[in-house]
Amino acid sequence: MDIGLDDKAKAWRDAAAKFATEELIPWETEAELNEGKLPPEVKARHKKLAIELGFSAMDVPTAHGGRDARVLEQVAVWEQLGRVTNALCWCFSEPHRWMFEACTPEQLERYVLPLISGKRKECYAITESGSGSDVESIQTSARRASGGYRISGEKWYVTSANHADYFILQARLAEGPHAGSHSLFFIEKSEPGIELVRTPPFSHTFSDHHPIYRFNDVAVRENQRLGQEGDGMRYAHSWFRRERLMIAARCCGAAARLIEEATQFAGQRMIGGEPLIERQMVQAMLADSVTELWAARLITYEAAGAHDRGEDLKSLHARCAIAKLYASEAANRIVDRVLQIFGGRGYMRENCVERFFRELRVDRIWEGASEVQRLIIARALIKRGLEGM
Ligand SMILES: Cc1cc2nc3c(=O)[nH]c(=O)nc-3n(C[C@H](O)[C@H](O)[C@H](O)COP(=O)(O)OP(=O)(O)OC[C@H]3O[C@@H](n4cnc5c(N)ncnc54)[C@H](O)[C@@H]3O)c2cc1C
Q1: Residues enclosing ligand 1, CB less than 6 A?
Q2: Whose CA is nearest to atom 23 of ligand 1?
Q3: Ligand 1 centre and the CA of 184: distance in Å?
């Protein structure tokens, strides 16, 4: 399935494919059976290799020591990393390009650049009990205090907070000219007033947890705010766009591996004296899956290309929503079919199909549920018509 990548994008893709196949995939079952955890020396090796391969610097401008990779190249990497279960590919942190617009030189030095070398790790705290899909309605407040703000509120599902050094937290400004609008803040995890409420278990088996944190009147200085007062939603949208596109890429990678696994299995599994793959009902399931994977890849790579061509931001926003919606829904249909082809073997936790069956489900929920992506697409259509998307 050649999507017509140029040599540079192929080099990124091949490096990620080799890393996923040779270094990460062999550890999946061990992670699954040990609450997502790997031996520390293996974890350290994965992190070191990912950093050496340049994955943590892909979206970083060269002026800041980064690789300045095109979005297309980043999609090619994340597609390959999506072939891996148990979030073993989350072995590195990645600064995003928008951070270099949002942050002061001091913030880049303290919070952002150390992500590249793996010296520090971040986590994002946006969602709350009362506001998930409706991000605008968050209640966590940033109240003006001498030299900065006081942050109060509770954040849910803070992915990787158990491994992170600091939060990027989204809060509503309580007063001043921008009252009611949002800002993002860097907050060290060790600050007084930060309380771990609980760590709920989830369907997947990841070493990165999604805990709930309470912020009890936490003091932050003015220089911990990203950008100007009221810039929060703008930067959150930049974050959403990139994550949605990379979720689409990972879903394509997962779907490709699932189809390969099912084709190989059905070619060997004998039923009624012939290989399962000779059954036309099985062939139909594989054919539908391949067709949907092709569509998902074309949508995703074309959206990445649109970023690299510098197309209109509003159009890109809708294109990322289309890519995430289609690829995540397709990957969920594909894993369901593939599990069916595997029969009971597909229901065993030692089989990647079973793990993907649980892990892919959240791609229809996080970074905006499928219904929210549909709303974004419909609003873009209503406002700007098909030509404006
Ligand atoms: C494992 C996991 C990790 C996460 N990590 C993070 C993280 O690191 N940081 C962070 O800030 N958040 C994180 N989230 C939160 C995630 O982004 C939210 O779960 C998501 O935005 C949906 O919000 P919600 O769960 O509150 O669902 P709700 O907002 O309660 O929505 C429930 C359902 O209602 C439907 N729905 C919602 N709005 C509409 C609408 N307008 N029209 C029609 N139907 C609608 C959708 O089907 C949706 O699934 C994580 C969530 C999970 C499950």
Answers
A1: 124-127, 132-133, 157-159, 202, 210, 362, 365-369, 371-372, 375
A2: 132
A3: 19
CB-based burial, 110-125: b 16+ in 10 Å, e otherwise: bbbbbbbebebbbbbb
> pLDDT tens-digit profile of 294-319?
999 999 999 999 999 999 999 999 99
Task: Point out the ligand 1 atom lying closest to the alpha carbon of residue 362.
Answer: 53
Instruction: Please answer whether residues 237 and 314 qualify as being in contact, where contact means their C-beta atoms are separated by less than 8 angstroms.
Output: no
**How does residue 188 score in pLDDT terms, banded at 50, 70 and 90?**
very high
Q: What pTM value is reported for the model?
A: 0.98
Tokens read off for 263: 């084709």
- CA 34, chain centre distance (Å): 23
> Token pair 């944190």 is at which residue?
213
Mean pLDDT of the chain: 97
Angle at 6 between CA 293 and CA 61, to 5 degrees: 100
Q: What are phi and psi of 305, to 5 degrees?
A: -60, -35
